[in-house]
Design brief:
32 strands; alpha+beta; six-stranded antiparallel sheet
Length: about 800
Amino acid sequence: MIDTEQVTISNRQNTRVPSESAVAMCDRTGTVVAWTEAAERLLGYSACEAVGRSAALLLPCSEKAPTASSFLEQCAAHDGWSGTTTVHHRDGHLLNVVLRVSMLRGRDRTIQWLVSVTDVGTFAPDSSEAGSRMRESQLTRAPIGIVVRDARLRCVWVNDTMESHDGICAERRLGRRFPEALPGFKAEALETAMRQVLESGTTRLHEYRMWLASSPRREHSMAASCFCLQGAHGEALGVCTISIDVTESRQARERLAVLTEASTRLGASLDVMQISQELAELAVPLLADYVVVDLEQSIPFGEGPPARSGPVDGRLPAFRRAGLASIHHGVPESPWVRGEPVPVPPGSPFADVVRTGQSHLEPILNTAPGTWIDEDPVRAQMIQDHGMHSLMIVPIRARRALLGMALFIRAKDPVPFREVDLHLAEELVGRAALSLDNARQFTREHTAALALQRNLLPHRLRGGTAVEAASRYLPADIDSGVGGDWFDVIPLSGARVALVVGDVVGHGINAAATMGRLRTAVQTLADMELPPDELLAHLDDTVQRLAEEDADDPDQTFTVEGATCLYAVYDPVTRTCSMARAGHPPPAIVDPQGRVVFPDLPSGTPLGIGLGIPYEAVEMELPEGSLLALYTDGLIESRDHDIEMGMHRLATALTQPSHSLEELCTRATETCPGQAPSDDITLLLVRTRSLDPDRVASWTLPSDQTAVRSARHMAAHQLTEWGLENLEDPTTLIVSELVTNALRHSTGPIGLRLIQHQVLTCEVFDTNVSAPRMRHAQATDENGRGLFLIAQLSRRWGTRSVSDGKVVWAEADLAPSHA
């Protein structure tokens, strides 16, 4: 049966029907009896010159067949001939052609011959040997059906192959028009095309679809070329139709188009769930009516390596539904939605695919009792409800690891799956596997980097009595990956606090790991009580050293390309803030009235550049309740706006200092709603506090032996005023040792300061810049035990440099009632 609704008339030249062939008819004696315009264009002979002449001008004669008639006799013994040869053009030059000689039968078993000659040069250029063999195969070996009709479109000649194309036998066809051969068949479109060829003398190409009686469940695509046959005087004798079954080539083109589209669509995402969904949608309805993709459960979350083929410790890996598509809206066939776990019955073909890593093809789905379906009532009901009759399961594998499996089902399409369908499914899944593996690797790295960065960043900000702090960290979108942003609030001696924000160049787990190394280095340098400019200089040396170490390691695929950093120290006693930056954006400072400024700090060179330019620190006094915003460039830079606009947006978001820090963090990081950040966003907000002057006591001591006694007396008196009498003995002893040490190693005035905040801090200033070192005194030594004693009496102690000397300090815990 031919589907007349699908008949199309076109002049397409990409179908492999010899529409550009020179067609001629010869009788059994080898005389040309009909000619075509295509033959005239190719060979140069008009119908008047060719008709009535020997077919030797078309046929390759040889010693065994010196004449056209003898050549045709040999063709009769083999039911035709095809191959490549050369023929002469009318002007004498040679043409490389593909020649095909086909036997036609008429009434009373009479015979004539159809000769088609095709110039090889009319096809797409391909000089390769494989290309030449392919062209020859297409033109000489593909079975073609031939029907020759007279001027009234009645069939007068036909070859044996034509019956296999449309199921009409020669006896039923000869002497009849097409509608007469198939009663009830509406062939107006086909006959109209033939009549146009007859009237115009041109060649037309048409295509149609049909279902043969021999394979009623399989649709065939046919392509036919119609030639006008001319007599000796150029008159129209009839129409020759040459048809070919292009089902396989059409399917091949469609499948090639799907694979090409698959490479584009599947490779466009780094989301394993999206890739799985794309794979399912690509296969419906071209290949199957219902497709699902199940991934090994660790794949969607980037957790650990994927499973190997086969059970682990006797257990099958778990799977999770990742993609599904159907010809029916809403995919009613699937009992599980995307993201849900999917069971794998041990005796099912799904389990066999997992164990063997090989595809499973079941053209006719066996649902008889006693099969695997008995173990899986959910799928059994699904198969019954939707009439599923053919199944393919293809494992998704990459680098010897099992990523998942794809299930292909036919229900509405009555044609069972064949090997060719399995090959296409495997090719499609193979391309998806490459994309899934790339996405899995990226997801694992992204997840690991994100976890590493979050674990390295502070979980709780300790601003002490100096500042109130809040922060936001927003990782970049998945295309850019996690970056190397970090921030910190580090308590220092004397109630001071260090504020730091930094950004390592690059993205991914290596940038996150480098960030962790630099954050640790900053904490170590901060514990050394270095001023901001000196700390950045030491950090610059650290980055350069890390880069050199990475460059010397042949296994290191990533090197530190640089980083930026802003480091500030705030003192709540003096309300001064000293800060320096290394190529980092300047902070935003908001006064209590809501005025926002970006201080003009020396920019400094990024860390690791190695230019040797010293960093500069700037000190400023801040009113109590001032707001400091330290951030990375991801907050103020975007694909659509420059930095100045980003800084303006940030300033606008911070103009409400009365809001809580959490609210301000939200306002500042939501200035571009709906737009995924192209870089990590890090924001550290601190609101400054000042220490009550009543909680700070300072004295200047003379540089003589009376200083120790005076210092003890003043410290004891101050502790009594603060109600800290319980700390008098250890504190006065610490004061004695620190002042004694200052008298012994320095000249000039000595400063003493007590600070009551979260702890009790005792500070002694002297003009000697050398830091004290703890020694292990021998039993006979009279000195050298002071710092050891201070370490025993305090919770911690240390020293820091100041402009004209140093400060040695020690901290003691307050009594529980004052904590």
